Amino acid sequence: MTSVRSDRTFYVSPRASDNVDGFHIKKPDLPIDLPYIGCVRSRRTDEIESSNWMLGCETLDRDYADYHQYKEYISALGIKVLRMQGGWAKTEKVQGIYDWTWMDNIIHDAVDRGFMPWLQTGYGNPIYPGGGGENLGAGMPLSQEALAAYENWVVALVTRYKEKVKDWEVWNEPNFSDNLVNTPEITADFNIRTATIIKRIQPDARISALALGHIDVEYVERFFAYLSEKKSIELFHNVTYHDYVYNPDANKLAVYKMRQIVEKFAPGMIMRQGENGAPSVGGTGGALSNYNWCEVTQAKWDIRRMLENLGNDIECSIFGIIDMNYSGNGPIRRKNTKGIVESAFDNQAVRPKIAYYAIQHVTSIFDHTLERLKMLKHTYHIAPSGSRSAYSLNTDRSISVYGYRNKDSQKQLYAMWADDAIPRDEHELNCLEFNVENGNFDEPVYVDMITGGVYEIPAEQWRKQGDVYTFKNIPVYDSPILVVDRTLISMK
Questions:
Q1: What pLDDT is recorded for position 28?
Q2: 15 with 435: CB under 8 angstroms?
Q3: Cα(386)–Cα(478) distance, rounded to whole angstroms?
Q4: CB 13 within 8 A of CB 439
Q5: What is the average pLDDT score of the chain?
Q6: How many whole angstroms separate alpha carbon 42 and alpha carbon 78?
Q7: What's a single GO MF annotation on this record (predicted)?
Q8: What architecture does CATH give domain 51-365?
Q9: I want to staple 69 with a disulfide (CB 3.0 to 4.6 A). Which of 103, 349, 417, 454 is the partner?
């Protein structure tokens, strides 16, 4: 085992005006005893047709962030779908009068840049009695006057942006711990009310249900039972949840239980991780604050969660593009450092963080050209099949392994990482033997996803016997690495 402190490892562009297309070093300083041959080349949004990834651009409705300060950073991430909140209270400050200026500037700019806004219709508006609150954890509009005003707002919002926005969401985290008003039935009814309006105006709209704040299986069950009773499940394209856990791989059982409930009521409905990320500084605002985070552990968390979601057929949105300066009367009143771009306290963008570059490496490689393989541990023989692979690793540690192949060439890629603990600000590399049946490689290489470093796997460290490939002394640690055919990696 080789161990190194991460403060020796990474070098990041220090200013917002600098190049965001990758690391400014020739060779990452990781103790990987393999010949270094290059670095993953990032790809911009217009170079990628489609992928599993979305990007959080939330809290603009409350001015905790400023889209125009970070918009130049988005395209270099290669992500198309941007999650945003509509901001009823910001738009209608006087009853019956909508000022769209702020939102027009954002939506039009995003679409002109080739992005696809995923727009939420909440929160509430306190200018109406019973109009609900405008912050996380607030109650929904419940009075007849407020509900009528809310319906008018949704009509106006969808009518205005239906040519530019196809993806919609209703209310953020209705089961947030401080909010006891939003029962599953009230939330379901509110979702139906909103989705019915959207579909009437925009029949081809894709609407996300629920936006669950943390996985609560009873809440999910009651929510979908209500949708089923009202025969309204067909209104929704996907179901979203947010689940912040310190170990990004520790929520698989909860997700599995939620998926079982969704499948019972809505077979085949898409699961979407609508919001997930880790702080870069410990003790700051929002979820997961009680840990000594740094930029390295944030980056490890983010890309582990991204690749765990992808490996389990879950769409994934990263929270978020920039640090958010929470203020006002909401439950979070400190800077939320989950951004992958650092911000100043006046919302100015400062610089990309390590996670920004790590996410570039993920989005550059994992796009629509790959399809997932069914991965099975090597405990029994598997009959040859193009979509299945069996694998083994010579370790007792828990290692996540996900396999993919290129749809055209059929060449393969395997992602793996130690998943048994919270990411650490230290790299403990264990050199393991990796065996895979039904492999397909001509020239396998090793990729470290944090740094983007690409390394040769020397001929003496791998062999092929029949359809079984054996790779020896492969460094594995608590951040994703790849064993991949070189043709699937674009390098610079």
A1: 53
A2: no
A3: 29
A4: no
A5: 91
A6: 8
A7: hydrolase activity, hydrolyzing O-glycosyl compounds
A8: Alpha-Beta Barrel (3.20)
A9: 349
